[in-house]
Target: cysteine-S-conjugate beta-lyase
Amino acid sequence: MNVAEFCERYAVERKGTNSLKWDALDVRFGDPDLVAAWVADMEFKAPEAVLDALHQRIAHGVFGYSFVPESFYGAFIDWEKSRHGYEVKKEWMRFSTGVVTALYWFVNAFTKPDDAVLILTPVYYPFHNAVKDTGRKLVTCELVNENGTYQIDFDGFEKSIVDNDVKLFIHCSPHNPVGRVWTEEELKKILSICNKHNVLVVSDEIHQDLVMEGHNHIPSAIVNNGEFADRLITVTAPSKTFNLAGLLTSFIIIENEQLRSEFDAYVKTVNQTEVNILGLAAAEAAYRHGQEWLDGLNAVIRHNYEHVKQHLNEKAPGIIISPLEGTYLIWLDLRNVIDREKTKEFIQDRCRIAVDFGEWFSAEGKGFIRLNMATEPRFVELAVENILANLEK
Ligand SMILES: Cc1ncc(COP(=O)(O)O)c(C=O)c1O
Model:
């Protein structure tokens, strides 16, 4: 399916549907008329198979308590194996109403108040919140920015662990917002360091399926033939991949039995909710039948990213665009063209775009913005046009 076909089939107006992205612009940005390029969801309907599965459930008309059917496990396990080479066992799986919710659970379950938790910044801001809101000590290690390409400072990473007696590391793989898909070598290095210092790893792999050609997402749990799986928790979901975030269904994978029972004991104290009947129906259908849709979506993301690159590189070469290896979020460094203190005034008030601002992701992020590419090309074209027109003024 090419870009035009995908958009023709799936693009949809979201205004007027209680969409956080579009209908909360006034509350979040103080202006209802911006082009919404911020929060990570899309203007695309889910695959037909997902809608069919939901329609079937709805036609039945009963939404009582449910449990996870064998057929769901089959679909998820097949997807992980065929797409990512990860052979997940059913008994390793747990469920939550969101990846972010699960991050809070992990922090509470596996650390004590004032324990140190490490993140690689700039990173998705709920990572910061999950540590701060739970009264833990937030330790950040800044990724090294080499002209837009981000690398891990392995010495700094290890030093942060040792100096702060870090207990837990929350990893973002692929990485939001810098767009890196970590290589096996990189993963091996950080996981070995964590192993050496007995640091538990949580690997947030929610963007696992949104990977550009030429890159390969490697689940942390299978790095070096699973060497690190015993001190590792993976959390993922169909919500980014298939635009299902509002169905509040995400998955936790814990291989180690002891870790799993510690997790279960903690979760019993905060969660007594069964699974979401619609969320699981949607997820199962997506993992079983969503392949072609996902290929179409990835083509749209690539197309939009190439558009931004081509036009900004040509007409505003001072803007540094980080290479998009994975996720559908691009990270732009505007500091060569705009006074960093005026980023908001420029992007929001003049260019009329709602973005995620760099300082949400890192104290050093001022002057950067994150733009969402999982949308119709016309929105991306408009954003680029507005940026270029206002730079000229
Ligand atoms: C890295 C990462 N984790 C988690 C989430 C959100 O997950 P959920 O909606 O399941 O809490 C996002 C959303 O953008 C994300 O980028």
